[in-house]
């Protein structure tokens, strides 16, 4: 059960005398336990009123007050049924009085009572003072209870430095813990502080651990203080206070490197998952990293070429085909079937390699399985190096996600002695070049420390596999076979497990000298064997140890003459029973070692060290070129070529428009010419028809690729044929150019352009706008564009323009107003015909404003095919009216993507957008700025008020950002925001990114689950922006998406202001349309847009669908966490007939 079911709901209880005391107590307890707030008097701050006596609703004072304040009065069953359903149910079937949001929704009104408008629980008290919070010693047995198992580390900070008072290297660690959702403690944050403290339960705690670093690493007692608080806001305030106190002392500085033994186990696990991009490494470790990296990259590129061109889906598909090959071999399928599968494999993953014959198929299968794993490993770590084969060593090291330290002295000798003592023959000539200690934090944390028998054992592989082994650890095998031709220790004689040897001699057989240096690598792993079952016979069917055992042991012939095992082999069947401890670089007596020549590297961090100040001159105060429109056309001189007239015929149906533009050209000259006419189109419009009429011929245009169309146009001109081209400017997509080529002398041609558009709403009126002219620079650039070189080109002037508009609306038309021209009007209740009066200059364009009686009511239109009634299109229009005030003290968290994929122009554009946001932050709001890649860093430990001092720090933080932080792991900065949900205000996250994020499905899922308290507004940058992911994240969280095109910078500032405006208001989320078809045999509806974004004040949504046999739809949405719905049907007057 979701323990926070009623979180945020203030419920007025009207429990009559018919309900006994025990039942009343139980209902109150259930509401409070599930995060609800009980109100014993009904005020405007209540959300609902629940009554146990519906019959007395009319006479009850509480119910009458609910009616007065427009609140719904519900039957008591609503509480119990919602608890049983584990979700908040719609009010519809429970309402017995007051006002229903469903009825509001049906009329298009949204009464959104948002989280930030809820009553403040401490409004009658002084503001929260973090210094008054009681401090507990960590060893105090009387401290408040806290769920030690079910909690998360939401935030942390590690400080280190030399303490003059303690005379030692000193460290301090701050941790903010929050109880995880299953415990239900997060939901207690809605209960008053007195109630929580009485129960001795808190939802949050802040721990400060400090002491000498040596003592902490040795596990000696430290100085730890614990502070317990009830809400996320209080926890953040306490955390920020302690953070700033440590900084002010000046002795300690914040560090990012993990320290063994410091912090709670949960913090150690969290740090283990963080990739440290900035860690310092020794020269010997650098050479090792370069060695394994080049060996792996050379292997991949020699077979596949450029790894950037390979997609993960291809590799996964190829792996699936290999499984089919394996299965086919097991059942002895016909050779032809196996060969077809092999062809499919090479088709899925094209690469340079000869196809195998049946005699070597098993060896080929083993080799290709290894290759696929290697490719996946390289793809997983490649963004850390920005896909650069010459990337800096530091980036390669960070991609391995482990700490590697070279050992010397006695520690190195201990490992050398271990290896020498395990050799089968003292005469074996093995040379140890280097010994490294390897720390993979995830292995340390998951290791089975509880199993008593632990041994240091050996494992080896080819050098090319060590990028994968170090970055993700050893894997259980995917291919289980008796003998696939050999170089696989994990496809062995004790089934599907990870194999180790007690003798280095055995493991070294699976190694091979590298191509780049000639040395080999050997792992020394700590293996938790526990209870180990001995075997002297092969058993390849094992996938787990026998019952009662933790591992298996193939006993060597040395100890048991009857054994089938030549050497001792130990097998574990779970990755958490082993962890890498040491990595040994060695040689055999036949190996020839050559010095590794360090390849030229591209140090991505150094490239960006000189950070130039980002200017906003090209994105602020830039007038929209369309605003520079001047009457008439300004063109180059030349012979007069007449555009005699332009006729516009438009049909408006609700918020949709179909516009036909007819242009009549006349060539007054005595030679054939090319004529050009330029006109603008709104970005919400789409051209759907282009036709020409000349000399009795009717020519219909075809849509073709731009280059093909231009080529054919030029060819037709050069051959003396008539040609017509309509072209959209790539840099200014709202501009179209019509070119009429080879217009004969004294000839007339009629061009017909048809386009459809969605209309906008201005001041509650539907606006139909026809722009007449273009901005001079756009017109000039369009006229200068060469479409052919055979004829002279001339600019055309439109001398006469007529406009006729047919209007058809779903409700009574209250007003028709044309602010630009005089018009003639013929009108009925819901239809009108509008014509522009003759002899008027078209000037700056034509605008028609239409006022409706019910503009906010959802409505539906149907258009049927004239010949086939089964074919029809539906249109559903929704323009909700919001009844809510804007937020005065909200919060914005700005998250800036500085991963490697953002290098160059992408980061520059992202910084411009970030600075625009900071420049336009609402007064009185709190904010924070976060940079992220594989990990994240924030300018403030907690959000701070928008004052000049804080703003300047944030601006400098953005200015200094460089794109060298590895992968695009957005869940890192989002995780603490999701864990620390605000209690009284909704959090707005502004994400600036190219959208190429890791695990996008999981990110979208998390955004959806946390949408009640956190909205994500995404800002897409880069020419290769993944808009799909950014749109999805914003859609499911109730935010909005904007793409910042580098070619239309005049729109950047308005877009930023629009996003901030939306963050200042509530929204309508989870909007969905269910089309009702009266015949189940019809095809499923096709809808556009398929996914509907959140709606905000002043925005509207038009949904189109190809839905046979449908005149009704159900529109659903969420308002303040409650689902509401209404049925929208089509009247006979709203059914039209198409072509």
Automatic annotation (TrEMBL):
It comes from the Eukaryota. GO terms for molecular function: NAD+ poly-ADP-ribosyltransferase activity; nucleotidyltransferase activity. GO terms for cellular component: cytoplasm; nucleus. InterPro entries: BRCT_dom, BRCT_dom_sf, PARP4, Poly(ADP-ribose)pol_cat_dom, Poly(ADP-ribose)pol_reg_dom, Poly(ADP-ribose)pol_reg_dom_sf, VIT, VWF_A. Residues 1-96 form the BRCT domain. It is found in: Nucleus. The keyword Nucleotidyltransferase applies. Residues 627-757 form the VIT domain. It is an enzyme of class 2 (transferase). SUPFAM superfamilies: ADP-ribosylation, BRCT domain, Domain of poly(ADP-ribose) polymerase, vWA-like. This is Poly [ADP-ribose] polymerase.
């Amino acid at each position: 059960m979701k323990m926070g079911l009623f979180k945020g709901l203030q419920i007025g209880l009207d429990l009559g005398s018919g309900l006994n005391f025990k039942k009343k107590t139980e209902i109150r307890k259930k509401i409070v336990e599930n995060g609800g707030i009980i109100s014993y008097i009904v005020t405007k701050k209540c959300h609902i009123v629940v009554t146990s006596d519906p019959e007395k609703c009319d006479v009850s004072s509480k119910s009458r007050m609910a009616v007065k304040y427009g609140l719904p009065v519900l039957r008591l069953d609503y509480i119990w049924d919602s608890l049983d359903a584990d979700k908040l149910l719609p009010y519809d079937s429970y309402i017995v009085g007051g006002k229903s949001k469903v009825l509001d929704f049906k009329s298009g009104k949204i009464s959104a009572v948002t989280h930030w408008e809820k009553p403040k629980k401490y409004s009658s008290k002084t503001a929260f003072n973090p210094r008054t919070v009681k401090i507990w010693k960590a060893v105090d047995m009387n401290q408040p209870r806290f769920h030690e198992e079910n909690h998360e580390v939401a935030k942390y900070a590690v400080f280190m430095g030399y303490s003059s008072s303690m005379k030692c290297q000193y460290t301090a660690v701050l941790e903010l813990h929050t109880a995880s959702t299953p415990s239900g403690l997060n939901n207690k944050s809605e209960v008053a502080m007195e109630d929580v403290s009485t129960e001795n339960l808190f939802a949050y705690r802040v721990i400060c651990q400090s002491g000498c670093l040596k003592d902490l690493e040795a596990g000696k007692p430290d100085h730890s203080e614990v502070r317990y608080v009830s809400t996320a806001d209080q926890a953040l305030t306490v955390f920020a206070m302690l953070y700033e106190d440590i900084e002010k002392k000046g002795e300690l500085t914040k560090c990012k490197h993990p320290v063994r033994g410091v912090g709670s186990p949960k913090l150690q696990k969290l740090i283990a998952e963080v990739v440290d991009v900035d860690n310092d490494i020794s020269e010997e470790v650098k050479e090792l990293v370069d060695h394994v990296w080049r060996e792996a990259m050379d292997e991949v590129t020699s077979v596949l070429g450029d790894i950037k061109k390979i997609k993960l889906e291809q590799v996964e598909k190829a792996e699936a085909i290999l499984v089919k090959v394996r299965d086919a071999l097991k059942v002895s399928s016909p050779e032809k079937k196996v060969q077809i599968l092999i062809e499919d494999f090479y088709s899925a993953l094209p690469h340079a390699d000869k196809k195998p014959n049946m005699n070597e198929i098993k060896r080929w299968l083993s080799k290709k399985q290894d290759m696929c794993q290697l490719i996946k490993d390289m793809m997983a770590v490649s963004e850390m190096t920005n896909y650069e084969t010459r990337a800096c060593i530091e980036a390669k090291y960070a991609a391995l996600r482990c700490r590697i330290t070279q050992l010397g002295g006695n520690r190195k000798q201990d490992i050398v002695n271990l290896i020498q003592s395990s050799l089968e023959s003292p005469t074996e000539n093995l040379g140890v070049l280097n010994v490294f200690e390897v720390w993979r934090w995830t292995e340390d944390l998951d290791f089975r420390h509880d199993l008593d028998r632990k041994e240091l054992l050996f494992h080896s592989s080819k050098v090319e596999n060590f990028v994968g082994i170090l970055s993700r650890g050893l894997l259980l095998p995917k291919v289980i076979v008796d003998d696939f031709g050999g170089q696989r220790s994990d496809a062995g004689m004790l089934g599907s497990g990870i194999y180790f040897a007690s003798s280095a001699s055995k493991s070294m057989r699976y190694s091979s000298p590298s191509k780049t240096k000639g040395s080999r690598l050997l792992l020394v792993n700590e293996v938790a064997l526990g209870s180990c079952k001995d075997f002297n016979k092969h058993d390849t069917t094992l996938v787990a140890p026998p019952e009662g055992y933790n591992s298996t042991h193939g006993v060597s012939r040395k100890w048991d003459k009857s054994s089938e095992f030549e050497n001792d082999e130990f097998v574990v069947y779970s990755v958490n029973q082993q962890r890498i401890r040491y990595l040994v670089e060695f040689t055999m007596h036949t190996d020839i070692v050559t010095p590794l020549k360090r390849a030229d590297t591209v140090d991505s961090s150094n490239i960006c060290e000189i950070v130039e100040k980002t200017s906003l001159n090209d994105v602020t105060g830039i007038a929209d070129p369309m605003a520079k429109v001047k009457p008439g056309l300004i063109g180059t001189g030349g012979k007069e070529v007449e555009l005699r007239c332009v006729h516009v015929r438009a049909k408006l149906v609700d918020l949709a428009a179909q516009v036909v533009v007819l242009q009549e050209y006349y060539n007054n000259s005595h030679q054939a010419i090319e004529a050009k006419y330029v006109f603008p189109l709104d970005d919400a419009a789409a051209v759907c028809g282009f036709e020409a009429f000349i000399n009795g011929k009717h020519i219909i245009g075809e849509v073709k690729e731009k280059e093909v169309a231009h080529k054919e146009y030029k060819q037709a001109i050069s051959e003396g044929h008539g040609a017509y081209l309509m072209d959209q400017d790539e840099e200014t997509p709202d501009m179209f150019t019509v070119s009429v080529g080879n217009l004969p002398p004294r000839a007339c041609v009629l061009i017909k352009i048809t386009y459809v558009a969605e209309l906008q709403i201005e001041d509650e009126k539907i606006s139909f706008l026809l722009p007449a002219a273009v901005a001079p620079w756009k017109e000039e650039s369009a006229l200068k564009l060469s479409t052919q070189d055979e004829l002279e080109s001339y600019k055309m002037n439109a001398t006469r323009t007529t406009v006729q508009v047919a209007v058809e609306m779903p409700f009574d038309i209250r007003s028709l107003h044309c602010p630009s021209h005089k018009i003639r009007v013929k009108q009925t209740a819901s239809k009108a015909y509008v014509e522009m009066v003759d002899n008027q200059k078209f000037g700056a364009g034509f605008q028609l404003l239409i006022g409706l009686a019910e503009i906010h009511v959802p409505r539906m239109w149907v258009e049927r095919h004239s010949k086939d009634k089964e074919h029809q299109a539906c249109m559903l229009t929704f323009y909700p009216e919001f009844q809510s005030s804007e937020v005065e003290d909200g919060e914005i968290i700005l998250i800036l993507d500085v991963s490697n994929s953002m290098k160059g122009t992408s980061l520059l554009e992202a910084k411009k957008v970030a600075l625009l946001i900071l420049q336009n932050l609402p007064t009185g709001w709190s904010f924070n700025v976060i940079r992220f890649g594989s990990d994240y860093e924030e300018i403030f430990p907690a959000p701070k008020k928008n004052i000049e001092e804080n703003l300047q720090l944030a601006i400098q933080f953005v200015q200094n950002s460089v794109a060298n932080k590895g992968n695009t792991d957005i869940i890192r900065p989002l995780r603490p925001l999701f864990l620390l949900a605000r209690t009284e205000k909704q959090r707005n996250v502004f994400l600036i990114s190219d959208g190429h994020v890791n695990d996008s499905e999981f990110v979208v899922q998390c955004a959806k689950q946390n949408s009640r308290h956190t909205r994500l507004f995404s800002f897409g940058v880069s020419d290769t922006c993944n808009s799909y992911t950014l749109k999805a994240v914003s859609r499911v969280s109730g935010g909005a998406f904007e793409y910042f095109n580098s070619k239309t910078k005049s729109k950047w500032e308005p877009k930023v202001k629009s996003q901030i405006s939306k963050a200042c208001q509530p929204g309508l989320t989870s909007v969905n349309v269910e089309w009702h078809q009266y015949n189940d045999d019809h095809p499923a509806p096709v809808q556009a847009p398929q996914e509907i974004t959140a709606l905000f004040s002043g925005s509207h949504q038009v949904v189109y669908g190809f839905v046979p046999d449908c005149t009704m739809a159900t529109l659903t949405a969420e308002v303040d966490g409650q689902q509401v719905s209404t049925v929208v049907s089509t009247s006979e007057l709203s059914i039209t007939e198409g072509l």
